[in-house]
Amino acid sequence: MPEFGTVRYEMPSPQVARIVMNRPTARNAQNLQMTYDLNAAFDIAVQDDAVKVIVLAGADPHFSSGHDLRAGSKNEAGADFPSIGGWGGFREKGAHGRFAREQEIYLQITRRWRNLAKPTIAEVQGKCIAGGLMLAWACDLIVASDDAEFCDPVVTLGVCGVEWFVHPFELGPRKAKELLFTADSWSAQEAHRLGMVNHVVPRTDLTRFVQDLALRIAAKPAFALKMTKEAVNRAVDATGQQTAIDQAFALHQLCHAHNLQQFGTIIDPAGIPATVRKPAAE
Ligand code: ZN
Predict the structure, then answer these.
(1) 83-99: pLDDT as tens digits
(2) N or C: which end of the chain has fewer CB within 10 A?
């Protein structure tokens, strides 16, 4: 089985790859290592012809607390990550480097995962915060446990929501504004009512339910599954979603620039949780 520093790669059956974020003591906060581990794990699952469905899960107790605000640009061995996207500027200083970096590790990589050639299911328990939402939203289906909570508190940090801005598409514009304006946490039941979540199941049943769902999908022809995913994604694209995401990303960068002028940091320090030692350098 492939091994990664921050991600477990499991195969509960030959047709299902289960990719598990594995930094439980950090609530599975997504640092750069995890971003690239996830990407590598997704690549393996996509390239394995036996795998029909990919599950994205988080080691208990929480799915994801979002981007690791303490994360730098080095991997756990201390080496710089190469830019995999090829759009350049990743190492530049100031707005140039920040734009390039966030474009790669948040925007383009999430777009890539959203368009993976096989059906994906997010298995969400506990907290799913900010960047955690991006991970769940990138998947085709979301199954949540009854104790799951969803929240994007990024406005509190002086920024207009997370980088992959699909809130209006996932929730409808009015509820999206409420989620963002208030930074409230919403229950799995509320997310289900709004159509953001496919199923809500008891916490103890979550993994088994997702596996059963994955196997039912895996029984269908692979190419038809791929084309069905393409058809739905293209329908969403035809609504202008990609353009809307890119517009919001530009405004997100404007927020970072504003905060830098105002506070000397790219996020409003008043919104940084006490548990985070120093503001993000990203
Ligand atoms: Zn940002």
Answers:
(1) 555 556 666 778 888 89
(2) N
Print the domain residue range for 191: 7-207+218-277
CATH of the domain at 38: 3.90.226.10
User: What pLDDT is recorded for position 281?
Assistant: 45
For the chain, the domain total comes to 1
Q: Is residue 1 included in any domain, yes or no?
A: no
Tell me, what's the pLDDT at 272? 81
User: Which pLDDT score is estimated for 83?
Assistant: 55
The Å distance, Cα 159 to ligand 1 centre, comes to: 8
Checking if the pLDDT of 212 tops 90, the result is yes
The residue ranking higher by pLDDT, 11 or 85, is 11
Average pLDDT value over all residues in the chain: 92
For residue 133, the CA-to-ligand 1 centroid distance in Å is: 14
Question: At 97, which helix (H) or strand (E)?
Answer: helix 94-102
CA of 54 from ligand 1 middle (Å) equals 27
58-96 as b/e: b if 16+ CB within 10 A: bbeebbbbbbbbebeeebeeeeebeebeeeebbeeeeee
* Selection from 164, 161, 159 nearest residue 102 by Cα: 164
Q: Quote the ligand 1 centre to 4 CA distance (angstroms).
A: 26
Rounded to the nearest angstrom, the distance between the alpha carbon of 89 and the centre of ligand 1 is 16
- Residue 247 within any structural domain of the chain: yes
For ligand 1, the distance from its centroid to the CA atom of residue 124, given in whole angstroms, is 23
What spacing in Å lies between the alpha carbon of 219 and ligand 1's midpoint? Answer: 40
